[in-house]
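Long-time lurker, first post. I've been practising inverse folding by hand and with some scripts of my own, and I keep getting stuck on stretches where the C-alpha cells seem ambiguous. Below is the full C-alpha cell string for one chain I'm working on. Before anyone asks, I'm not after the true native sequence, just a reasonable design that respects the backbone. If someone could post their per-position residues I'd love to compare against what I wrote down in my notebook.
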C-alpha cells in the first residue's frame, strides 16, 4: 500500500470511528481511532495533526466509557495530542487552533474527572489564553473554556469564582448562539447546579427549569442531555421539599441513562444515589441504604474509592448505617479523600467532618 492509499484508509477509519461513537459503540470507536492515529503518524511523522485528531477521537470514546482506567488512558491521549499540536497552532483561529483548544480542554477535563484539580486549572488556563488569542475574548471558544473553569470552581468549592466564570460564559453564549440554544441550556444547568452546591436551591430553580425547557425543545424527552437536566432539577426540588416532583425527575433520568448508556454507567450510579436521597427524605431508611450501597458499588468501580463523587455517596451512606464502625470508616475516608482537594465550604467535606465530630462528642 502506497502513502496516499494508507492516508485514505486512515481517513475512512477515522470517519468510521466517529460513526461508531455516535452509535455508542465505544469499543469499536476506540479501536478504529487508535488504528487511524497509528497510520497517520506512520505516514506523516510523529508531529501529524491528523494523528493528534485521531488520538482525541479515541480519547473522547474512552472518556464516555468513564471507567477509572479509561479516564487515565483518555488523559494520556489528550496530553499526547496537545504536545503534538501546541507547536503547530497559530493565532488566527484556524483549524489547528481548533484542534489545540480541543486537546487542552480534554487534558483539563480528564484531570478534573480524576480529581487532579491543580492540573485541571493549569490546562484550562492555557486553553483560555489560546482561545482569547486565537478567537477573541468574546468568542464561543472562550465561552466554552469559561464554562470549564466554572465547573472546576464548583468542584473545588470556589463558588464565587465559579459564578463569575458561568456568568461570563452565559453572556458570550447568549450573544453568539442565542438565549434558547443548547449552550445556553448548559449554562443554566450549571448555574442551577452551583446554586445547589451553595445550598441556595430556591435561587437555582428558575435556571434548573429553564435548562429542561430549552433542552426538551431542542432534543425531545428521551435524550441523555435532558436526563442530566432533570437530575439537576431534581436535586433542587429535593432541597426545597418537593419530594414527589424530585422523584419523578430522578426516575426519568435513571430510565433514560439505563437505556442509552447501560446499567453500570456512572450516570446510572448517580441516579441511584439521588433516588436513595428521596427514600431517605421519606423516612424509608432501608430502601435508602440499599440504593446508596448500589450507587457506591457502581461509583467505586467506575471512579475509584477516593473520587469526590464516590465520597458523596459514602457520606450519605454513613449517615444511615447502624454499624458505627462502618459509618466512621466511611466518614474518615471522605475527610481524608477531600481535605486539600476541595475547599472547606464543600458540603460533603463539611458533612463528613460534622459526622465525625458528633460521634466524638
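-- Answer (accepted) --
I ran through it position by position. Result:
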Amino acid at each position: 500500500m502506497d502513502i496516499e492509499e494508507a492516508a485514505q484508509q486512515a481517513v475512512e477509519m477515522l470517519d468510521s470511528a466517529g460513526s461508531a461513537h455516535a452509535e455508542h459503540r465505544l469499543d469499536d470507536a476506540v479501536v478504529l481511532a487508535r488504528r487511524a492515529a497509528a497510520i497517520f503518524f506512520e505516514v506523516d511523522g510523529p508531529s501529524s495533526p491528523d494523528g493528534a485528531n485521531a488520538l482525541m477521537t479515541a480519547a473522547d470514546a474512552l472518556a464516555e466509557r468513564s471507567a477509572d482506567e479509561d479516564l487515565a488512558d483518555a488523559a494520556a491521549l489528550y496530553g499526547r495530542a496537545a504536545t503534538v499540536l501546541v507547536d503547530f497552532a497559530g493565532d488566527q483561529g484556524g483549524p489547528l487552533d481548533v484542534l489545540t483548544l480541543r486537546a487542552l480542554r480534554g487534558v483539563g477535563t480528564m484531570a478534573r474527572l480524576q480529581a487532579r484539580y491543580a492540573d485541571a486549572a493549569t490546562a484550562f488556563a492555557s486553553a483560555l489564553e489560546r482561545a482569547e488569542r486565537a478567537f477573541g475574548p468574546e468568542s464561543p471558544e472562550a465561552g466554552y473554556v469559561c464554562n470549564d473553569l466554572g465547573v472546576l470552581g464548583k468542584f473545588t468549592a470556589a463558588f464565587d469564582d465559579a459564578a463569575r466564570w458561568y456568568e461570563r460564559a452565559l453572556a458570550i453564549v447568549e450573544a453568539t448562539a442565542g438565549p434558547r440554544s443548547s449552550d445556553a441550556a448548559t449554562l443554566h444547568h450549571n448555574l442551577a447546579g452551583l446554586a445547589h452546591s451553595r445550598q441556595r436551591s430556591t435561587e437555582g430553580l428558575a435556571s434548573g427549569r429553564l435548562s429542561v425547557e430549552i433542552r426538551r425543545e431542542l432534543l425531545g424527552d428521551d435524550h441523555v442531555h435532558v436526563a442530566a437536566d432533570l437530575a439537576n432539577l431534581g436535586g433542587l426540588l429535593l432541597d426545597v421539599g418537593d419530594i414527589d416532583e424530585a422523584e419523578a425527575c430522578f426516575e426519568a433520568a435513571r430510565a433514560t441513562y439505563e437505556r442509552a448508556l447501560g446499567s453500570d454507567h456512572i450516570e446510572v450510579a448517580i441516579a441511584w444515589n439521588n433516588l436513595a436521597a428521596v427514600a431517605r427524605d421519606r423516612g424509608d431508611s432501608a430502601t435508602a441504604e440499599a440504593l446508596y450501597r448500589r450507587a457506591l458499588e457502581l461509583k467505586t468501580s467506575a471512579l475509584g474509592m477516593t473520587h469526590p463523587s464516590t465520597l458523596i455517596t459514602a457520606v450519605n451512606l454513613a449517615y444511615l448505617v447502624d454499624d458505627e464502625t462502618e459509618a466512621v470508616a466511611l466518614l474518615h475516608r471522605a475527610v481524608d479523600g477531600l481535605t486539600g482537594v476541595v475547599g472547606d465550604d464543600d458540603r460533603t467535606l463539611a458533612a463528613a467532618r460534622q459526622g465525625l465530630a458528633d460521634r466524638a462528642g
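A couple of notes from the structure itself: Residues 292-361 form one domain. The mean pLDDT is 94. Happy to go over any region you disagree with.
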